[in-house]
Amino acid sequence: MSIDEAPEHGGQQHAGAHGGSEALLGAAEIRALAARLDLTPTKRWGQNFVVDANTVRRIVRTADVAGRDVVEVGPGLGSLTLGLTEAGARVAAVEIDPRLAELLPETVARKQPGARLEVVHHDALTIEALPFAPEAIVANLPYNVSVPVLIHLLERFPTIERALVMVQAEVGHRLAAKPGSKTYGSPSAKVAWWGPWALEGDVSRQIFWPVPNVDSVLVGFRRGPSMGSEELRRATFAVIDGAFGQRRKMLRQALAGVFGSSAEATAVLERAGVEPTLRGEALALPDFIRIAEAGAGG
């Protein structure tokens, strides 16, 4: 079911703590704000603004972050930000565009006086600190950097227990892919470190301005049991990078660079109980972890 076609619970529109459609941005307001900044959405920063308030509310409800501490990446003109603050979330909004970062607090204060928002003008790919420890990520992620941003935030902020992000459909399917599927790869294996990922809804192109030429999906996770130490995670990610860096090759060849030689890679794989002639796409995260542990213990 498409996220912008999902039925409202009980047939009633949730208006949140502030109530009413005036608490969110409409399409005309969004265009007016862009005109005020003389802003033309750019491909460089992956800017496609959500212009449908009903879709915003459904995304926020799906995220299930009412009253929680949330980091949002690329808030743009504030469509999703206002949906999150309307639900009572405290939001740290990370925005790389200085014009948007400057305007956002004014927009939110005007629409929702008293909303809890802190805007951080920074590149999400390199951010190292936020005003508070986030419990969740909810974002319309720029298509060109969505996976690196997600992994960086999950690495840097271990308090994150929930994520729901809107991404290009191809990226979303890759994040949620399981071993053996055509879309399974390094991102699929890496993000599984923090918990199981799943597709949580389709998104119509028509809710964006400008309308993108690709489809979008919602993909998310809830944190699972700990997989191990930070040292083990780094070692596991190095194995994953090696396995998928030359994905046409068998593991004993693909991991030669990680462990020093094809012979040593074979020995490590055998200690881990993994067939050296397999390829990376056949392995699940626990397999990569066993390889990393076997390599460290060798």
Could you state the order of secondary-structure elements as H and E?
A: HEHEHEHEEHEHHEEEHHHHH
Assembly type: single chain
Tell me the number of strands: 9
Quote the beta fraction.
15-25%
What's the arrangement of strands in the largest beta sheet? 4-3-2-5-6-9-7
- Kindly state the percentage of residues in helix: 25-40%
Supply database-style keywords.
single chain, 298 residues, alpha/beta, two-stranded antiparallel sheet, 12 helices, 9 strands, elongated, disordered N terminus
Word description of this protein:
With 298 residues, the protein is an alpha/beta fold. Helices cover 39% and strands 15% of the residues. The protein has twelve helices and nine strands. It has a seven-stranded mixed sheet with strand order 4-3-2-5-6-9-7. Mean pLDDT is 90; it is low at 1-18.
